[in-house]
Amino acid sequence: MGNYLNTTAVCDTYNRECRSPYFVDKSLLLEQLITRVETSTNYICITRPRRFGKSVMANMIASFFSCACNAEYIFDQLKIAKSVFYKDHIGRYDVIFISLNELPRKCRSYEQYIERIENRLIKDLKETYPKAGIQEDDAVWDAFSAVYHSYDSKRFVFILDEWDFIFHRDFVTQKNREEYIDFLSNLLKGKAYVSLAYMTGILPIAKYSSGSELNMFLEYTMVSEEMYGDYFGFTEEEVDELYERFLTNQKDPRVTRGGLRLWYDGYHTKQGERVYNPRSVVAALTNNNLGNYWTSSGPYDEIFYYIEQNTAQVREDLVKMISDIPVEANVCEYAASSMNLTTRDEILSAMVVYGFLSFEKGCVQIPNKELMDRFRDMLIKEPTLGYVHQLARQSARMLKATLENDTKVMVEILEFAHNTEVPLLNYSNETDLTAVVNLIYLAARDTYRVEREDKGGIGYVDFIFYPEVDHTADGIILELKVNDTPKKALQQIKDRKYVLRFEGKLGERPKYTGRVLGVGISYDKGTKIHACKIEVLRDRIS
After folding, report:
1. Which strands make up the sheet holding 327-328, listed edge to edge?
2. What is the pLDDT of residues 449-474, one digit of tens each?
3. DSSP class of residue 426?
4. Which of 145, 176, 224, 391 is the most core-located residue (most Cβ within 10 A)?
5. What is the location of CATH 3.40.50.300 in the chain?
6. Span 9-231: which CATH code?
């Protein structure tokens, strides 16, 4: 077993994954890859955001193909075992598996990084194929060619995980990036010794490979290509199955199926199928707790990095997206690789590539509560976001005033919102007013599940605040009116029986036992005056 050649570590790692109580069998991806081995389409690059299972699948592919793994004991139990290709391909190849996100100790330069990879490859080939006459100072591709010619046309399956990792390191220069692209090109392009090259990453290669260096790869992204879409992320059906396992495993299940959807759903494949963040789903079920499991290094900082590149252009989009309003955008996935994002579309594109936003039918939006919480943190913490930051900072005060029936303070905050520089929010309709109201109640998301246009009674209510942290806390039903009165808004809440959303099924005790407050908010375009009115629609249930 070598450092990169026919390592059995990938098999051990994938075996542990298969033994997880919340393992999802995605092995049929292998059936599609098998058909491309030693064909003209044998160069494949899969790009997805972090935590979407890229490394798990890379370990699976290496374990299946490698002649060193003897992995039948794993794959005989999986879906791929029923394929007509199974026996002919499992364990039949020499596999080069490189996790390109590994750095040498105390790495301070690109030269240290790439020399470690080259030295390990040369060492593996020298030890395994002595007849090839490989020298330590040979180019890696020359060493592979020597093996090919000396060992009866020996071919390899290359699995390169996190190909773009090095581009995120501070010590890497533009010249280094070009050298790295040349390294991959010289190693793989047009080489007879390549049976299959499978590469993963976050960033598509198009931006970095401006010429023909890596044009042999066919790229498969979440936005632009349907193929392989089902194999990265969890589908609705897969999460249903996992949740049934969870109910069997947990004596006191505290995670609901609806909670998983609220927290971790919201992404889409090219064909429109809903996709969940897999790592977060597994963590929530394992811990029996819904929470933020996006454990990349500083997701808040990364989100703000993109937004601060052009705060003015994206600020209004933030207001809309925080209000669950999709925003039209021209997503160009390669834009994420640029360190000099200048346009609105480039910034939004970068955030889609990194998984901070989802993209469907020409629009971007914040996919779920897990990400919404990250955006909320940013809006509250970053003064450079101007009026958006100022309104978000008022949100805790707005919630407190609402719960205390302090309509004077509520109107004061609404007037403050109206008098700030809000070019998009001209209150021409209730959608604009909705965006402002969502922003100034941002703090409520810490303790409430806020639903916009939720089905309630006989109709759809503008906002319902469900107290999820403390079910005895007050619930809130909020209705908006433009050129009308808050009294009329409250009457609509009562006439349409929106309060029924807080009642349990017939014969069951309601889940939410606190008071239910009706809140009417209006804005008169003629007088430019806001008004608020609050009523108790249901008393506390003892």
Report:
1. 327-328, 363-365, 358-360
2. 888 765 444 456 789 999 988 999 99
3. -
4. 391
5. 9-231
6. 3.40.50.300
